[in-house]
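ok so I'm stuck.
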Amino acid sequence: MMGYRMIRRTTASRRMAVLAPLAALLAAIVLNFVLYLLMGKDPGAVFYAMLLEPFISWNSFAEVLLKMTPLLLIAQGLAIGFRAKVINIGAEGQFVLGAIFASSVPVWFPQATGWWLWPLMLLLGAIGGALWAALPAFWRVRLNASEILVTLMMNLIAAQLLAYLLVGPWKDPMGFNFPQTVMFQWDAMVPTLFPGTRVNVALLLALVWSVLAWVYMQRSFQGYQLVVGGLAPHATAYAGFSEGRAVWLSLLIGGFAAGLAGAAEVAGPLGQLQRGIASGYGYAAIIVAYLGGLHPVGIVFSSLFMAALYIGGDNAMVSAGLPASAVEVFQGSLLVCYLAAIVLVRYRFARPAEVAA
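replied:
not stuck anymore, here's the structure
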């Protein structure tokens, strides 16, 4: 390939763009197949536990839906900003701030009751995530600071704020010295969706959020402005569209979604604020967003698949003796393979003479 150059295709194949995630999955499976052989593990047992077991029984699939909920919420919010070329890496911190804001209600008012309690917590969580995202938006617009670096560093600040609260003012005095709050009262818990499972109403909210994201990005003029602004910022500035407004909208929407996911996590399966709330959903949602092609419909399927990897990875650690790091390697290799595949969809190799012409 010496002397060849990559040039952008005049029209990218839509069929190949759809097939890119499948090609990336196959490539990741092949790469990790070799890795598992080198580790002395049975690849068949690993892939069975990781990719098939999550869908075999209703109970395991219910856990997949539970994991899918925060991934879907966060990824849909991030994808809007990514399409506008506003790269928010701070969903993890925004998720944590959403959980903190939501937890303030049962922590400060442990005796409060009423049907309004958990909706208020979700609203406060979404506001908390948006406020945390407003800081890098302000610095990007006013000071031209990179939102990538600022949002990434703010994840660390959010983690330290969480640690301070859980070992300090919000620590459960009856919690045997564990860094956690008191258990939330019943009315502060999001209602379950299916009896006998932990799947809750937040899944419906995530699906509704996906529909709204589709309408916003595919059918609204403001969504069109964001996409065009990301592709051609100079042209949109000439047309009178505000780049600063695009930055604010992208980061606030992403923070709102991540904060809502954090609130749903503490008011749903956890039932209290814990150190483990920062479980990497914000980073995994980046993979989900890109694996779904930054399209709301594709993200629904990619979030389901990534959630299955979470549950299947736990199964593989138990039944196949796979280390936790190997599961993360599979997720990372999947993203790398997808990025390589999408580059080949959008670009092609050309001879030097063709490039010069």
